[in-house]
Amino acid sequence: MEIMKTQIPKDPVIETYKKDIDRTLLRENLRLTVEQRFDNLMSLQGFAEELRKAGRKFDDHKVS
Amino acid sequence: MITKFPDLLQTLSAAEVDFIVIDGAAAIAHGSAMLTYDLDIVYDRSSKNLERIVSALAPYQPYLRGAPPGLPFNWSARTLQNGLNFTLITSLGALDILGEVAGGGDYAALLPYSGHIELYGVRCLCLTLEKLILTKRAAGRPKDLNAIAELEALLEESERQL
Questions:
Q1: How far is CA B89 from each of CA A8, A27, A64, B40, B140, rounded to the nearest angstrom?
Q2: How far apart are CA B98 and CA B79, in angstroms?
Q3: Using one digit for the tens of pLDDT, what is the confidence trace for B52-110?
Q4: A35 vs B31, B113, B119: nearest CB
Q5: CA distance to partner chain B, nearest, from residue A59 (Å)
Q6: Axis crossing angle, helix B23-30 with helix A34-60, rounded to the nearest 10
Q7: ipTM of the predicted structure?
Q8: Whole-model pTM?
């Protein structure tokens, strides 16, 4: 089955947001396979979880 | 909890569930650098497909994400039939199964805008980057503005590389 083509009209609000996008990360990701992109995501999820745990410990030791 | 994307995709695919990967996971497949915690899919709502989803996920204890423990949630085709969109937590991670997407419609409506991706030995359908952008735009949620901008930049970058 052929994939339907879609046109995306420019939106000035989105264009403003687009200026702050780090395209170096996107270019790096485009060099990866789909599987590698998901592997990176799962590593990032693991890192985010570790940060959360560290944040909870930090809260526990906070001087009020 | 880390969502086991390979296991979820393999489970659904092995059961021959008709689904399309959408939203954050589709964005990742296309090269997004954003972090997502769940797998979002649009599923076909035919009775056969509902049965397949229920059998495939039953071993992984699907439960309503964020709901207090002990609620009488019955994981069955009837439950799926009576509802539409379910945000679930399973022992494989967070999974959103959607009968319809705001701004995109149902499985049949999204099918012409989906292509195959292959990962972890699974071939599954994924929404095109263009349609992903259009559905997010149509949903009109302010929180999506940055994600839409990233996806549009991604589209420009991928077209530049062709």
A1: 34, 33, 36, 12, 26
A2: 13
A3: 999 999 999 999 999 998 888 999 999 999 999 999 999 999 999 999 998 899 999 99
A4: B119
A5: 20
A6: 120
A7: 0.89
A8: 0.92
